[in-house]
């Protein structure tokens, strides 16, 4: 049986049993209340009859039955009571609804207490012929009990009088049952719709599939609700953020504040981000994509993030960057040496052997200077490779690249990434190159020094400088004095420096001088 029908059937049975139980209680209470009211009314009438002087004297003087019968029936017919029986101390009936019962002993029972003890009470008379509520009261004359009066009210007659009230109650209960059954149908439909029409077995299958998929993914998955509490996560996320096995329902910020803040920012700004780098420790960066979770009404109910550890990828990228720098340097060096070989070949063909030897010695000396400086001062292969590559490229443009003799950089430095340091040097040297192309005697000087608390970098040229109309917004994306489509270099430089909370100073006189310091605590 489908879940919807199970829910509908269950609630229908519950509603029927509930309404049935309520009906039984209501009608039982109604019957009890009616009988109590009937008894009170009958007792009031019995006490009233017992107080009539003519009835008292008739019993005391044993007057003819007709005296009492006529008197009682004359006003009983005007009331709602079916019978009023007056009897003497022997139980002989002086009045009865039918003449045939007059003068005979009362035989329905229940009169003994009133005749023997003078008690007043209410009792029920239920037999195969009638069902009535009776009230007994003693009759006294001059302080002596001379008889008793019995007032009866048939329950069938009372039920007829209250039939309208009963029908109203039955109508209300029936309407309640119909509404309840309709509610059960609507509720079962809504429950079915809220679980997307799935059966319990299908939900269990989906949950197991979800767990299997989440755990089989290399990427980390973590989802938060609107309050930043963890909804779900896989094993990769658990290892990354050191989450306990029962982290669901707990705040992610208690385990990693930075990543939680990044996710909650995307949630508050109602934006989805792809391939965003989030650094969660000095040595670990996550490439993260965030997607908002929405319900059927397109309301945001949370955010889910998938991420992968870029630590290894960064290392490979840095290695590839180093290899590319070496390749570029070798390509430029090859081109330069081909030109030099052509020059040497020409001098030999002209039999200018002395000039050829002088030229070779000059080239060797220049080569020894730059190679010696870089090899002795710059131990990091990535930075050395990019400087060597820039040196040969600039030489083709007849621009000198001078490495300050006071420069010093180790092979491994602390928190500052090699690729970002290479990006700083490369962009600043490229900007200087653009300013010096076509200028005689162009010169670029680079100073780089590693200190205990950071790295100091100076790049300066003897070009024309930065135009004054753009110097105040030189770090904005797309701002450049060069051709359209350029202007990202200094924007990238500023982003890297801001990331490490470093400083950058510009001297825009007799060329451009960039003075940068990157602290280790960035």
Task: Describe this structure in a few short sentences.
This protein is an alpha+beta fold and 522 residues long. It has 14 helices and 14 strands.
Provide the fold topology.
Elements: H1 3-50, H2 53-60, H3 65-76, E1 83-88, H4 112-116, E2 121-126, E3 131-141, E4 144-154, H5 155-161, H6 163-194, H7 200-216, E5 220-225, E6 230-233, H8 235-241, H9 257-268, E7 273-281, E8 284-294, E9 300-309, H10 311-349, H11 353-377, H12 381-396, E10 400-403, H13 418-436, E11 443-451, E12 454-461, H14 489-499, E13 503-507, E14 513-519
Parallel strand pairs: 10-11
Antiparallel strand pairs: 1-4, 2-3, 3-4, 5-6, 5-9, 7-8, 8-9, 11-12, 12-14, 13-14
Essential attributes:
alpha+beta; five-stranded antiparallel sheet; 14 helices; 3 domains; 14 strands; Beta-Lactamase; rod-shaped; 522 residues; 20% strand
How would you characterize the overall build of this protein?
- The protein is of the alpha+beta class.
- It has helices at 3-50, 53-60, 65-76, 112-116, 155-161, 163-194, 200-216, 235-241, 257-268, 311-349, 353-377, 381-396, 418-436, 489-499; strands at residues 83-88, 121-126, 131-141, 144-154, 220-225, 230-233, 273-281, 284-294, 300-309, 400-403, 443-451, 454-461, 503-507, 513-519.
- Helix 12 packs parallel to helix 13.
């Amino acid at each position: 049986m489908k879940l919807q029908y199970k829910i509908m059937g269950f609630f229908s049975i519950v509603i029927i049993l509930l309404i049935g139980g309520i009906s039984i209680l209501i009608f039982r209470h109604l019957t009890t209340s009616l009988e109590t009211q009937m008894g009170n009314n009958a007792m009031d009438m019995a006490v009233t009859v017992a107080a009539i002087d003519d009835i008292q004297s008739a019993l005391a003087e044993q007057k003819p039955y007709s005296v009492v019968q006529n008197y009682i029936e004359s006003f009983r017919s005007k009331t709602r009571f079916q019978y009023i029986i007056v009897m003497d101390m022997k139980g002989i009936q002086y009045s009865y609804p039918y003449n045939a019962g007059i003068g005979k002993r009362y035989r329905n029972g229940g009169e003994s207490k009133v005749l023997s003890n003078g008690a007043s009470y209410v009792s029920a008379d239920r037999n195969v012929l009638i069902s009535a509520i009776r009230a007994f009261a003693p009759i006294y004359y001059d302080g002596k009990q001379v008889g008793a009066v019995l007032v009866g009210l048939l329950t069938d007659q009372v039920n007829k009088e209250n039939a309208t009230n009963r029908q109203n109650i039955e109508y209300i209960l029936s309407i309640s049952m119909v509404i309840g059954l309709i509610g059960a149908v609507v509720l079962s439909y809504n429950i079915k719709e809220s679980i997307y029409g799935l059966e319990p077995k299908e939900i269990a299958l989906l949950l197991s599939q979800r767990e299997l998929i989440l755990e089989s993914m290399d990427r980390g998955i973590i989802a938060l609700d609107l309050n930043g509490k963890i909804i779900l996560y896989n094993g990769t996320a658990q290892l990354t953020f050191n989450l306990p096995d029962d982290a669901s329902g707990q705040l992610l910020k208690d385990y990693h504040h930075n990543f939680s803040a990044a996710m909650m920012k995307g949630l508050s700004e109602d934006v989805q981000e792809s391939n965003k780098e989030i650094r969660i420790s000095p040595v670990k960066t996550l490439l993260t994509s965030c997607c908002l979770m929405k319900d059927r009404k397109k309301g945001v109910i949370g955010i889910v993030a998938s991420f992968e550890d870029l630590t290894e990828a960064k290392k490979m990228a840095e290695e590839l960057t180093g290899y590319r720098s070496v390749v570029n340097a070798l390509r430029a060096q090859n081109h330069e040496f081909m030109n030099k070989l052509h020059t040497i070949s020409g001098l030999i063909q002209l039999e200018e052997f002395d000039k050829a030897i002088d030229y070779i010695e000059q080239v060797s000396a220049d080569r020894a200077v730059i190679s010696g400086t870089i090899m002795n001062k710059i131990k990091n292969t990535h930075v050395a490779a990019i400087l060597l590559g820039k040196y040969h490229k600039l030489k083709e443009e007849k621009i000198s690249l001078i490495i300050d003799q006071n420069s010093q950089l180790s092979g491994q430095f602390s928190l500052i990434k090699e690729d970002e340091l290479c990006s700083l040097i490369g962009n600043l040297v490229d900007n200087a190159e653009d300013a010096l192309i076509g200028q005689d005697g162009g010169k670029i000087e680079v100073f780089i020094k590693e200190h205990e608390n950071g790295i100091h970098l100076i790049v300066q040229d003897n070009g024309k400088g930065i135009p004054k109309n753009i110097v105040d917004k030189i770090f904005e994306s797309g701002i450049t004095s060069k051709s359209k489509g350029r202007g990202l270099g200094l924007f990238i430089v500023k982003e890297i420096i801001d990331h490490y909370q470093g400083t950058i100073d510009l001297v825009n006189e007799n060329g451009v001088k960039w003075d940068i310091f990157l602290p280790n605590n960035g």
